[in-house]
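Running this now, will post back.
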Amino acid sequence: MTLKQLEYVVTAAEKSSVTEAAKELFIAQPSLTAAIHELEEELGITIFYRSKRGIEPTKDGDEFLGYARQVLEQTNLINERYTGKTVKKQRFCISSQHYSFVVEAFVELLKSDIGNKYEFHMRETQTYEIIEDVAHLRSEIGVLYLNQFNETIIRKTLRDNNLIFSSLFTAKPHVFVGKNSPLAEKNSITLDDLKAYPRLSYEQGSHNSFYFAEEILSTADSDKDIVVCDRATLFNLLVGLNGYTICSGVINEELNGSNIIAKPLTVDDYMEIGYILPSGIKPSLLTGMYIDILQKITKNVLCVQ
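Update: finished.
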């Protein structure tokens, strides 16, 4: 196995086509096909399904590509560190529940000394997809929460996927509301206070179990439920409809504006927010940098409020 072969399969996966990958790599298509076959034989796996429409990774291939990308990223960082040359774009991907501090840390990472050639992905997505992304090395790190309701199920799912959870901070539940909402006048909010207002939550797709809900107390009764896929839509509906969503209470006004405020929710619960990583794989330099930034940003939020 060579670095060149790793570059070949990663490029083929990105292009979903051996023909397009060969053009990108400036080699003949038969040579690229032969190199991929040789690597598959050496590893004893099939990396790609092939059809008239192109190629796509198999389950084994998906896992292998995650490792290959990490090796190429480390190689690129070594070259840049010791020769001053960036061979290829640095790639980095984060999968997370919808937290503004995760985006804030992402911004700070991009502002740091990472070179001038990169491709970064910030995926705010469903809880189970976060776990799958990190398990299959599509993302270097994932961010999600545990609480007394979901912890047993989430930890089992993490163990089944050979992932480890590291805590960043523990927060008491809050409610996000618009600054002009009647709820905004209260110093703290009870579940009874919420009954008249629309509850907003994030779609969880085919794994729409209460245990994978992004919001705590998802089993509580609500007459008015609105389910969305992205944070901007949730915030717009929250302001426009005097709705609410239950959250950690951590928000970045610079990134999210001043129309959303957090109010304490008077319930006996907590949200332990942390990051997940693959067990047994040393985090990349970029992952380590990102974790350091996350810890710095969340330092003032540590402890149960």
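Residues 170-271 form a domain with the D-Maltodextrin-Binding Protein; domain 2 fold (CATH 3.40.190.10). More later if anyone needs it.
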